[in-house]
Prior knowledge:
Structural class: alpha/beta
Number of helices: 26
CATH architecture of the largest domain: 3-Layer(aba) Sandwich
Number of strands: 10
Largest sheet: 5 strands, parallel
Strand order of the largest sheet: 2-3-4-1-5
Number of domains: 4
Mean pLDDT: 83
Distance between the termini: 93 Å
Low-confidence stretches: 401-410, 421-425
CATH class of the largest domain: Alpha Beta
Helix content: 55-70%
Amino acid sequence: xxYKAIYRRFRPKSFEDLIGQEHISTILKNQIKTDNIAHAxxxxxxRGTGKTSAAKIFARAVxxxxxxxxxxxxKCEICLASLDESLMDIVEIDAASNNKVEDIRELRESINYPxxxxxxxxxxxxxxxxxxxxxxxxxxxxxxxxxxxVIFILATTxxxxxxxxxxxRCQRYEFKRISSExxxxxxxxxxxxLDISVESRTLRLIARNSEGAxxxxxxxxxxxxxxxxxxxxxxxxxxSLGSASGEVLLSLVDSIVERxxxxxxxxxESTIKSGKDSTRLIKDMISYFRSMVIxxxxxxxxxxxxxxxxxxxxxxxxxxxxxxxxxMDCIDIxxxxxxxxxxxxQPRITLEITAMKLLEAGEREAMIARIEKLENMIKSGKIExxxxxxxxxxxxxxxxxxxxxxxxxxxxxxxGKKEAELSSKELSFNDILDxxxxxxxxxxxxxxALHALLVEGKLxxxxxxxxxxxxxxxxGFHKDAIEKEHNKRAVEEILADYFxxxxxxxxxxxxxxxxxxDEEDLLQDVVEIFGSEKLKVED
Length: 539
C-alpha cells in the first residue's frame, strides 16, 4: 500500500473531529437535524483550517441514511463510498485548473442529472476565487436557482476576490485560525496513535510555526517523523524548520542591547554558516521582540505567550533592558526587512543592513537616559558646573597686504590644496597607523554603525591629506555603504576631530589602485627613494 500523508490519514470524519471550528460545526449539524439545508455555502479562511474537510463531512451527512445528531454515521453504504471517494453524488472541482467559461458550462450541464444514490448531489468547488470574471458571470444564474437536489459548497482562502453577487447568494462561514493549544493536543493524540514519543515543548514549537493551520502542523510533524526513530527531538524540529534556537536569539538580542556591532555581526555569521535561512531568522526575531513587547506591556503575559516558565523569565530579563520605544522601533525595522526579503536578490545583505538599523534603534531614548543621568549627577553634587565667564578678547593679526594679494591671485583649487597640505603637515601615515585602533574606538563612540563598516577596512597610504582605506573583495557592501556622501563626510569629521587635523578619506577595493597619481607625485616618490643629487630629469 502506498504511503499516505498524516494529514490525510487523520482527516476529520465527523463534525466532532473538526478542531477549533465549533461555531460552524454546531450550525451545520443543526441544519442537518432540522432538515433546513441551504442550496449554497461559502467557506472562507486561511489554509489548513478545515474548510474542505467540513465540506466533505457535510456532503456525507446530508446523504447519510442513518445520521447521528447531525453527524454522518460513516458506516452506511453511502458514507463508505464517500470515504473511498467513489461516490459520484459528491463532486470535487478545483477552480484553479477549471476556471474557464467552458468548465462552468460543463458544470451547468451535469447538474441536470439527479443524484444516483443519495438525496443530494453536492458540488465542492475549491479555491473558487480563481475563477475568471466570465466564469463567475456564467456561474451566477446556476448558483441562484439550482435544482432542488443540488448543493454548492464554495471554499476559498481569499473571499475578497469573489464578486459580491456570488457572495450574497451563499451562506457564509468564516473558518478561524486554530489555537496553538488545540493544535498541540491534536498532535499529541496522533503521536500516541502512531506510538511516537514527543515532548510537549516540541509540539508547542510545531504549533507556533503552523500559524494556526492544522494541516501545516501535521505536515511538519510528518516531516520530522520521517527522520526520527520513534522519538521526536526538539533539535530535530528546529533543524527541519530552519529556525534559530532560543539560545541563538538570546545572544543576538544581548548584542543589540549592548549595541555591540562586531559581536552581532559575528553571531549572524556563525548562525548563517550553521545553515539557518536569513528570512527565517528575521521572522524568529520578530516573534522574539513581539514577546518582549507583550511582557513589557502587562502582567498577564504568561497567559498570552505559549512558552515555558524558564523561557518567559529569560524574555522578561531582556525586555527590562529595553524601553518600549526601542522595542517598537526594532519591530518596525524587522517587519520592513521581512517585506523586503521577498524580493531581495541577496538576503544576507538585507539581514546585515537590518542588524545595523537595530543597533541604532531607540537612540533618542538612549540620549534621554544619558541626559537624565547627567542631571541627577549635577543635582547630587557629583559634578560641579562652572559659571559662564566672558571670553577674553584676542587681538586678530591682519596679514600683510602683499600676502593677501598673493592668496587672492591663487585659484580656489590651489588654496584648498595648500590648506590640505598645511593641515596634514604634522600628521604622518605612521602616526595614523599607531593610533588607528584607538581612532576606531572613538568612531564607535560617535557612530556605531560607521564603526561596523570602517573596522573591516585596511589603511593603505596617506598622501596630500588623503587617507586611502582598502576593503577586501568580501566587503564590497561595506565599501559601498561607507562611501555614501553622508557617511563619508561623517567619517572625515570624526577622524579630523580625533587626529586634530583635517583629513579626506578615499575608499577602494583590493583590485583598485586608488586615484591616479600625477607625474609630480611620482617624481616626489623617486626623490624620496634615490635623493635629488642622483636625479636627472629629461624631457
